[in-house]
Design goal:
Helix content of chain A: over 70%
Number of strands of chain B: 0
Radius of gyration of chain B: 29 Å
Helix content of chain B: over 70%
Largest sheet of chain A: 2 strands, antiparallel
Strand content of chain A: under 5%
Largest interface: A-B, 73 and 63 residues
Shape of chain A: globular
Strand content of chain B: under 5%
Number of strands of chain A: 2
Radius of gyration of chain A: 21 Å
Number of helices of chain B: 22
Largest sheet of chain B: none
Strand order of the largest sheet of chain A: 1-2
Number of helices of chain A: 21
Structural class of chain B: mainly alpha
Order of helices and strands of chain B: HHHHHHHHHHHHHHHHHHHHHH
Oligomer: heterodimer
C-alpha cells in the first residue's frame, strides 16, 4: 500500500484504535485512558497537518476497495474534505482535553470515551468519503456512535432526548438511502468529483431534481434545517463536551458538509444551477437563519439558546452553497471552520459556568465575568464572533456571504444577514453585558485565583485556545492557510469546474 | 523607530497596554495618559514613509494619513492623553475601566488611520463596543439604562453600516480601498441607497437629530474623563465615516446635501432648545454637542452640494470638529473640577478656565470657534443655489443659541457644593486642553490649508463674530435677572427626549407581546411541535425505535458489537484490493 493510500486510512485509525483500546480498558485505568486518548488525538492533528501540506502541493490521497458489486468503498482527500478533516482533528483534540477535565470523577468514563472516539472516527470517515455509499456508511455509524453520548447521564430527560435524536437521525438516514438508491439505479455508480451526471440532465432533469431533494432532505435532518431541527434543542441534555462536539464538529457539521459535497462534488455547481436547485436551497437556509435566531431569543436556558443559535448559524454554510458565486462559496466554506471554533468555545464556556458556579441560565449570569474572568472573556470573543463583529472569524464569514450575494445578484440575502446580526446581537449582547457589568453579589474585582481553583487547566485551556483562534482567523484572515484563504482557493477551484 | 512601527504604534501601544493593566506594580496607570502619545507623534510628524503592507491582516489592511486624518488625530490624541491623566484615579479603583479605556482608545485613533473599509469597520466597532463599558462604569440603574440605549442605537447604526459597506464594496467589485470605494459609490446605480445607509449609520455616532438620543443619557452617566473623550473625540468618528465613504468630492449630491443641511440646522436648534431646559451640567453639555454636531453635519451637506464647495466644506467641517472636540473636552474636564475644594481663588480660576472654551464655542473673535465659523460661511458662499444665504443667517442665530446654552451651563453650575478633592493630574490635564483650545486658531490653517486660510482681520469680521455672542449674552443677562424675581420655570424636557418616547412605546409593545403576541406564537409553536411528534410517532410504529434504544443502553453489548463490526470492516479495507 502506497503512502498516499495509507494516510487516509491512518487518519481513521488514529481514533478507531483508541476507541477499541478504551472499550477494553477497565473503568479505573484513568491514566492509561487519558494517554491513549491524547496520543490518538495528537497523532490525528499531525496527520491532518501532513494532509493539508500534501493536498496544497497537488497530491491526491485515495484509498479504495470493492465493497458491493459496482460500488467501491473510497476514502479520498481532495480540496473540500481538507477543511473538514483539519477542523475535526483539531477540535477533537481540544474537546478530548476538555472532556477529560469535565468528566473527572464521573461514572462510565470508559463507555463515554470509547464512543467519543468512535464518533470522531465516523466524522473523519464522512469527511474522507469518496462516494455516496462510503458517506452513508459512516453517516449511519455516526448516528449510532453519538447516541450513547447523548444519553450519557442516563436519566429520563437524557433518554427522551436520545430517543428523539435517534428517531430523527434514523429517518433522515432512510431518506438519504432512498435518494442514493434511486441515483444508483439511474446513473450507476457515481463517485464524488467524477460525476457524469451532466449527460443525464437532458432527459432526466426532473428525476435528478427529485433525487437532489431527497439527498438534501436526508442531510438536512442532521444539519438541523428548519423544520427538521427539532432534535437538536432536545439533545441539549448531553454533557457539555458532547454538546460541543455535536454542535461544532460531528453531527450537525456532517449534515452541512454532506450538502456541500453533494452540491459541489456530485452534482457540480453548473448542473445544480441549470436545474435551478440553488436558489431554493438559499431560501431554505435564509428561513432557518432567521427562525433559529428568533427561537434563540426566547430561550433563557444558556445551552438551549446556544442550540437554536446553531440551527441558525449552520445555515450560513448552506446559504454560501446556495449563492452561485465564488465569494459566497468562500464565505460558506470558511464558516464550516468558523462556526465550529466559535460554537465549540461557547459550549466549553456553558460547561464551565455550570460546573464551576452552577449557572445554567442567561438570567443567572449577573457578575459572572468577575467570578470566572477567563471563561467569560472567551465566551465574549466567541459570542461577538457569532454576531459577526469584526475582527472575529464570524465577521469574515458574514462579509463574504454578503459580497457573494451581491455578486450572485441575490441582494435580498443582505437583508437576511443584517436581520440575523441584529437578532444575534439581541440574544448574545445581553448575556455579555450581564456577565461583565451587572451589579451582583460577585466580587468587585475579577478573581483569577478563584477561577483557577474552581476549574482545572483541562477546562480552561481548550476555550482559551479556540477563542484565540476565533480572533486570529479574523484578524489574520489574509494569512496563507487561514480558513478564509483555504476556502477561497477551494471555492475558486470548485466553481471553475 | 522604523516607519512601520511608527504607523502601527498608535493602535498597538493601547492594545498591548490593555493587556499590561493586569501587571502588578504601580506604574500601569501611566498607560492611560501615555498610550495616545504615539498617535500624537504620528499626527505631528506626518507620515514617516509609505504605509506598511499588511496583506495578512484582516482583508488586506491598508493605512492612510491625509490632512483630514492628521487634524483629527492630533486633536484625538491630545484629548485622550489629557483625559487619561484625569482618569487615572478611576482606573486605580477599577482595572476593568482601564482595560476598556485603552481598547476604546485603540479603536478611536486606529479608525482615523484606516485606509480600507474592513480596517475602518473593525476599529470603529472596537471603539463602539468597548465604550459601552465606559458608559456603564457607574453600574447604577441610570448608567445601565444609558448603556442599553447606547448599545441599541449603536447596533442599529452598525447594521446600517454593514449593509452600506457591503453594497459599496460590491459596487467596487470587491475592492476595499477607501478611495476606490468612494469612486465606485459615486458611479453606482444604487448610489442613493448606499449613501443613505452610510449617512444614517454614521449619524448615530455623530449624535445628529433624530439619532442623538443616546448622548444626553450617556454623558451624565459616564465618568467625567470618559464624557470628555466621548463628546470630544468619539463623536467625530461619525464625521470621519462620512468623509471617508460618501463621495463628497467625486459626485454632486443635491438631495443629500439638502437633507444634511436640514438635519444639521434641526440639530443645531433642537440641541439648544432642549438643552436650555436641562438642570444638570453634563446634560446641558450633551445637548450642546448635539447642537454643535449639527453644524458639522450642515457643513458636510455644503460639501455635498457640488464640486465648487466640496473642498472648502470638508475643511470647514473638520476645522469645526477639531475646534468643538477641544472646547467640549475642556468643558467636560472643567465641569468635573467646579466642585473641587480649595478656596475662592481656585474656584475663580476654574470659572475663568471654563469661560475660555465656552466663549470659543459661542464664536468669540480670535477663538477657534470664530475661525471655524468664518470658514463655514466661506464654504456656504461657494455653494450653488439660493439657499446658502438664509442658512448663513441661521448659523449666526444658532451662535446666539450657543451663547445662551453656555449661560445656562453657568446657571446650573452656580452654587455647586465643594466636596471633591482637587488632584494635580486633573489640573495639568485641563491646563493642557485649555492651551490647545487657545492655540487651535493658529494651528488649524497650517494643517488644513490650502483650501482654507487664516482670514485677514477686518471690522466686518469682528462685528460678524461679535453680535451673536453679544446678543446671546444680553438675553442671558436679562433672563438671569428675571429668574431671580419670577417664579416661572420652564418644564424640563426629559434627557434623551426621543428615546424616552421610544422607550414608552416599546414598553407598551412588550406588554402587548406578553399579553397577546407571545401566547399566540406559543400556541403556533406548540402546534408545530405536536404535528412533528405525531409524524415521528407514525414512523416509530411498532416500537422498533424503543427496542433499539433499550439495547443500545446496554452499552457494553453495543460497544463491543459496534467496535467488532467496524474493525472487521476496516480489516477488509487493509486487504490488497482486487
Amino acid at each position: 500500500m502506497t503512502a498516499t493510500a495509507a494516510l487516509p486510512l491512518a487518519l481513521l485509525l488514529t481514533s478507531l484504535v483508541p476507541a477499541l483500546v478504551i472499550f477494553a480498558l477497565p473503568e479505573e485505568r484513568e491514566g492509561t485512558r487519558t494517554t491513549v486518548n491524547m496520543v490518538g488525538a495528537i497523532a490525528k492533528v499531525v496527520l491532518s497537518g501532513m494532509l493539508v501540506v500534501g493536498v496544497l502541493e497537488g497530491q491526491v490521497y485515495e484509498w479504495r476497495m470493492p465493497l458491493l458489486p459496482g460500488a467501491d468503498l473510497i476514502l479520498r482527500v481532495d480540496s473540500i474534505p481538507l477543511l473538514f478533516v483539519s477542523l475535526s482533528a483539531v477540535l477533537w483534540l481540544t474537546t478530548t482535553v476538555y472532556a477529560i477535565g469535565y468528566l473527572e470523577g464521573d461514572a462510565h468514563r470508559s463507555r463515554f470515551f470509547g464512543f467519543f472516539s468512535l464518533c470522531v472516527t465516523a466524522t473523519i470517515g464522512i469527511a474522507l468519503a469518496g462516494n455516496l455509499l462510503t458517506f452513508l456508511l459512516f453517516y449511519e455509524l455516526l448516528t449510532v456512535a453519538t447516541y450513547p453520548l447523548v444519553v450519557h447521564r442516563g436519566d429520563a430527560a437524557a433518554i427522551a432526548g436520545g430517543r428523539s435524536y435517534l428517531l430523527y437521525a434514523v429517518t433522515g438516514g432512510a431518506v438519504l438511502l432512498a435518494g442514493i438508491v434511486w441515483l444508483h439505479a439511474l446513473a450507476g455508480p457515481v463517485a464524488f468529483l467524477e460525476p457524469g451526471l451532466d449527460d443525464l440532465a437532458l432527459g432526466q432533469g426532473p428525476a435528478l431534481t427529485a433525487i437532489f431533494a431527497l439527498l438534501i432532505a436526508g442531510l438536512a435532518v442532521k444539519a438541523a434545517v428548519v423544520p427538521l431541527h427539532g432534535w437538536l434543542p432536545q439533545a441539549m441534555v448531553a454533557p457539555a463536551p458532547v454538546s460541543a462536539l455535536l454542535h461544532a464538529v460531528a453531527v450537525v457539521k456532517a449534515g452541512a458538509y454532506g450538502i456541500v459535497r453533494i452540491t459541489y462534488d456530485l452534482y457540480g455547481q453548473a448542473l445544480a444551477t441549470s436545474l435551478g436547485l440553488l436558489t431554493p436551497l438559499a431560501v431554505l437556509a435564509a428561513i432557518t437563519i432567521v427562525y433559529g435566531s428568533l427561537r434563540a431569543l426566547a430561550e433563557d436556558d444558556l445551552k438551549k439558546r446556544l442550540a437554536f443559535s446553531t440551527v441558525s448559524q449552520l445555515s450560513y454554510i448552506i446559504l454560501g452553497v446556495g449563492l452561485a458565486s465564488v465569494t459566497g462559496a468562500t464565505g460558506g466554506l470558511a464558516h464550516l471552520v468558523h462556526q465550529g471554533i466559535q460554537k465549540v468555545t461557547l459550549f466549553y464556556c456553558a460547561g464551565n459556568f455550570a460546573k464551576a458556579i452552577g449557572v445554567k441560565r442567561v438570567s443567572e449570569m449577573d457578575g459572572v465575568g468577575r467570578r470566572l474572568p477567563v471563561t467569560t472573556a472567551t465566551f465574549t470573543v466567541a459570542a461577538l464572533g457569532m454576531i459577526g463583529i469584526p475582527p472575529t472569524a464570524g465577521f469574515v464569514t458574514k462579509w463574504h456571504l454578503g459580497l457573494g450575494s451581491l455578486d450572485a445578484g441575490q441582494g435580498w440575502v443582505l437583508a437576511v444577514l443584517v436581520a440575523s446580526s441584529l437578532l444575534n446581537a439581541a440574544y448574545f449582547l445581553p448575556a455579555i453585558a450581564r456577565a461583565w457589568f451587572a451589579p451582583g453579589e460577585a466580587p468587585r474585582q475579577p478573581e483569577l485565583g478563584a477561577e483557577r481553583r474552581a476549574l482545572s487547566w483541562w477546562l480552561l485551556a481548550p476555550p482559551v485556545a479556540t477563542a484565540a483562534s476565533v480572533l486570529v482567523f479574523g484578524l489574520l484572515a489574509g494569512m496563507p492557510l487561514s480558513p478564509l484563504s483555504l476556502a477561497a482557493l477551494i471555492a475558486e477551484e470548485v466553481l471553475a469546474r | 523607530m522604523t516607519p512601520t512601527l511608527a504607523w502601527l504604534a498608535p493602535v498597538l501601544v493601547p492594545l498591548v497596554g490593555a493587556l499590561l493593566v493586569r501587571l502588578p506594580g504601580r506604574a500601569w496607570p501611566w498607560l492611560l495618559p501615555l498610550a495616545p502619545l504615539p498617535a500624537g507623534a504620528l499626527a505631528l510628524a506626518g507620515a514617516p514613509g509609505p504605509p506598511p503592507e499588511l496583506g495578512w491582516v484582516l482583508l488586506d489592511a491598508r493605512l492612510l494619513l491625509d490632512p483630514v486624518g492628521r487634524a483629527l488625530l492630533a486633536m484625538t490624541a491630545l484629548l485622550w492623553a489629557a483625559a487619561g491623566l484625569a482618569a487615572q484615579a478611576r482606573a486605580v479603583e477599577r482595572r476593568g475601566f482601564a482595560v476598556l479605556w485603552l481598547l476604546t482608545l485603540a479603536g478611536n485613533v486606529g479608525l482615523l488611520l484606516a485606509g480600507d473599509v474592513a480596517t475602518f469597520y473593525t476599529l470603529f466597532a472596537l471603539m463602539t463596543f468597548a465604550a459601552y463599558g465606559l458608559v456603564v462604569d457607574d453600574r447604577s440603574a441610570e448608567a445601565l439604562r444609558a448603556g442599553r440605549v447606547y448599545v441599541v442605537l449603536a447596533v442599529l447604526g452598525e447594521s446600517a453600516l454593514l449593509a452600506g459597506f457591503l453594497l459599496a464594496v460590491g459596487e467596487a467589485g470587491g475592492a476595499l480601498d477607501l478611495t476606490v470605494v468612494r469612486g465606485a459609490v459615486a458611479d453606482s446605480a444604487q448610489r442613493d441607497l448606499v449613501i443613505g445607509l452610510l449617512l444614517a449609520g454614521f449619524a448615530v455616532k455623530a449624535g445628529v437629530v433624530p439619532l442623538h438620543g443616546w448622548l444626553p443619557l450617556a454623558h451624565p452617566a459616564a465618568p467625567v474623563p470618559a464624557s470628555a473623550v466621548l463628546s470630544g473625540a468619539m463623536l467625530k468618528a461619525g464625521l470621519l465615516g462620512w468623509l471617508r465613504l460618501v463621495p463628497l468630492e467625486e459626485a454632486t449630491l443635491p438631495g443629500w446635501s439638502a437633507t444634511l443641511v436640514t438635519v444639521g440646522l434641526l440639530s443645531a436648534f433642537a440641541g439648544v432648545a432642549i438643552g436650555l431646559t436641562q438642570r444638570e451640567a453634563k446634560v446641558v453639555l450633551a445637548y450642546s454637542s448635539v447642537s454643535q454636531m449639527g453644524f458639522v453635519a450642515l457643513l458636510v451637506g455644503v460639501a455635498a452640494s457640488g464640486p465648487e464647495a466640496s473642498a472648502a466644506g470638508v475643511a470647514a467641517a473638520v476645522a469645526y470638529a477639531v475646534h468643538h472636540g477641544l472646547a467640549k473636552g475642556a468643558l467636560f474636564l472643567g465641569v468635573g473640577m467646579v466642585g473641587d475644594r480649595g478656596g475662592r481663588w481656585r474656584r475663580r480660576l476654574v470659572v475663568a478656565g471654563l469661560a475660555l472654551p465656552a466663549l470659543a464655542l459661542a464664536g468669540l473673535p480670535l477663538s477657534s470657534g470664530a475661525l471655524a465659523k468664518v470658514w463655514a460661511k466661506d464654504a456656504l458662499a461657494l455653494a450653488p443655489g439660493g439657499w446658502p444665504e438664509p442658512v448663513t443667517t441661521a448659523l449666526s442665530l444658532a451662535a446666539v443659541g450657543t451663547t445662551l446654552l453656555m449661560a445656562r451651563l453657568a446657571w446650573v453650575l452656580r452654587g455647586t457644593p465643594a466636596k471633591s478633592e482637587p488632584s494635580a493630574g486633573r489640573d495639568v490635564a485641563w491646563a493642557v486642553v485649555l492651551a490647545a483650545v487657545a492655540g487651535a486658531t493658529w494651528a488649524l490653517p497650517s494643517v488644513l490649508g490650502p483650501a482654507v486660510a487664516l482670514p485677514a482681520p477686518s471690522l466686518d469680521l469682528l462685528v460678524d463674530a461679535l453680535w451673536p455672542v453679544a446678543l446671546g449674552a444680553a438675553i442671558a443677562g436679562l433672563a438671569w435677572r428675571l429668574a431671580g424675581r419670577t417664579a416661572t420655570t420652564v418644564p424640563e424636557v426629559p434627557a434623551g427626549d426621543v428615546v424616552v418616547a421610544a422607550e414608552s412605546a416599546l414598553r407598551r409593545l412588550t406588554a402587548w407581546w406578553r399579553g397577546r403576541g407571545a401566547p399566540a406564537l406559543g400556541r403556533l409553536v406548540a402546534l408545530a411541535d405536536r404535528s412533528r411528534r405525531r409524524a415521528a410517532g407514525l414512523l416509530a410504529a411498532g416500537g422498533a425505535v424503543e427496542r433499539v434504544d433499550l439495547r443500545l443502553t446496554r452499552w457494553r453489548t453495543a460497544g463491543a458489537l459496534f467496535g467488532l463490526v467496524t474493525a472487521a470492516l476496516l480489516a477488509t479495507l487493509l486487504l490488497p484490493a482486487g
